[in-house]
Prior knowledge:
It contains 13 helices and 31 strands. The protein is α+β, with helices and mostly antiparallel strands. Strands 12-16-13-15-14-17 form a 6-stranded mixed β-barrel. α2 runs antiparallel to α3, α7 crosses α10 (about 485-500) and α8 runs antiparallel to α9 (about 475-480). The relative contact order is 0.09.
Amino acid sequence: xxxxQTPSASDDQTRAFLSERVGGIVPGQRxxxxxxxxxxxxxxxxxxxxxxFLKQSIQTLATIFHLGEGNDLERVGGIEPPTRPWEGxxxxxxxxxxxxxxxxxxxxxxxxxxxxxxxxxxxxxxxxESTTLHFDPSLIRWGKTLALPNGAxxxxxxxxxxxxxxxxxxxxxxxxxxxPDHRAQLGAVYSLSxxxxxxxxxxxxxxxxxxxxxxxxxxxxxxxxxxxxQQQWFALPTSLDRDHRFxxxxxxxxxxxxxxxxxxxxxxxxxxxxxxxxxxxxxPRFHAASNDWPLGTxxxxxxxxxxxxxxVTVVSRWGQPVGRIIDLSWSxxxxxxxxxxxxxxVNVGPPRAAQVLGAVTSSxxxxxxxxxxxxxxxxxxxxxxxxxxxPFAVFDQISGQLLAGHRTADQVPIASITKLMTAAVxxxxxxxxxxxxxYQATDDTPFGYLRVxxxxxxxxxxxxxxxxxxxxxxxxxxxxxxxxxSREQFIERMNNKAQAWGLSLTRFVDVTGLDPGNVSTxxxxxRLAAQVFHEYEPIRYVTTRRVYHFRTLNTGLxxxxxxxxxxxxxxxxxxxxxxxxxxxxxxxxxxxxxxIRTADRTTGSQVVVAIMGSASSRQRxxxxxxxxxxxxxxHRWES
Length: 639
């Protein structure tokens, strides 16, 4: 069997794109020989000469009153002109009066005309509001960043536009569509429009990057885009530069509105403690003071150091210092198990309403998991483990970097990994998982399946667990039917979602994965899993369960569904790592497939590994474990 050793791949493109350098030109590349400097932003049109004239006018007025540049003032009294006009000596009045009479009217007229031109034509406003650039073949080759004066930037990566196009990056002043649940706008809105093309180049996974400024806030922030073509909001994996207050994200949306949205149900900041010796008997043992959460609210506080949580009741308010978002009773603070006895960094949000899906709430709402603003800062030079040669990808979710891979662009069948997208589309329709569902003969699907018969009743959550824990094909078919959509309509939504996420080489033709026409690449499978596990809390929760039990409602028959994920609980991964999502697959044409996401308990970093076409079930898990351990041992993350 062929063995491979794949080095980790560094990816500085996004940072280079949105830095002060031109977007898309990697350090060390030549600049274009024609078309001007690649580092220059698009000119502001006619305003630039006027601004230069205004500056020159002001400098010349200063020159009139101080020794400096200008033929009339050179070597007056034998004194050499200084470097800057305002550093000279004041001339005697009898020398300056003729100059004032000669030049002052001219420059006053110039200043007046310049001011009228600026105000009348609105050049400053136009420069601050938008910038447009035509991408000709030369510019397509090298890429370019469009920037606004406040620093908001949009970068088009090299070779991502299939033909010449006009790109406009602008401040958006119109009303926004209705925002997603419990989200609030933070800062300005920006629009990006690419006219002349209908899609990006297929082999470019990240064709477009944006960086937009945001204001001060302790709520969790993320870049969102409203796709003007699909009329839908999408959350983008976001990197936050807290020092310079910019949110950075990549996307494939050709025409969209970009904005930073706060999650008004998630905060991140410092927590301290009080009443270590005695607390009022009126309060529960775990209670807190907060200025943002209503009194009586129960919130979940999670330590970013240990990962431990405590559910506390907000009982009071007070003037908390900057950076402090909550103060805990000593009992609650101690339950977090942190090493710091003063303050610690925490995430605060509502407790999970449904410990078992559908048990409390009447509907399931997607909630993005909170990720710290980390970036890969280097590696330790560890050799890549020897694994069987086949397509695989190692993907850092927070930074969006591909850390390692082999044949990552090969389009191959993905088998039951398909069910991750089936679950996402199902949850998008906001079903009530407590709904009673009657199984029909048309739901029968061969191979791995839930052993129920036509006429048996169960809850939708039972089917949801059966599909993701046991990979039951008939459960996937039944869930799709429960939505009221036709098979074709449901699959169309799956494909639309893949395109919206920028998965141009991913295609679905059924909801189970039994059809080999469900294809993707190792890299896109990793990106799909990263997106699904990030946005859909129910999928994260269910895919990390080792077993699920339920009884059919009308017959009382018991069902026990063990997970198909052999790696769960097997100890093949370092102790400080935890599973945060996974899915297996098998098909004769695909062989054994597997995707898993793992997080480091201490740093919060998240790595996704996709293994395609493994020769045996066990081998895919052993290889995945080796790759996961290498990824976390070899790389370093910092905020």
